[in-house]
Design brief:
The protein is mostly helical. 80% of the residues lie in helices and 0% in strands. The N and C termini lie close together (10 Å).
Length: 61
């Protein structure tokens, strides 16, 4: 497994984890700040993943 593929898999897993934690925080009544932080991270991680793919499209990693 290349470093590039590992990085993309890690971003996908991190996105799913952030979305799950945001959902858990909202369901269990944890602080709204916690919910917003994890929800925004879940929204921004795919943007970072797309940027990473764009920047490394010609690299062989």
């Amino acid at each position: 497994m290349s470093l590039k593929i590992f990085h993309i898999c890690f971003i996908i897993l991190s996105t799913l984890l952030c979305a799950g934690v945001a959902w858990w925080c909202s369901v269990n009544g944890v602080a709204k700040t916690c919910t917003w932080i994890f929800a925004s991270a879940a929204a921004l991680l795919p943007v970072y993943g797309a940027w990473f793919l764009w920047k490394t499209r010609k690299l062989i990693l």
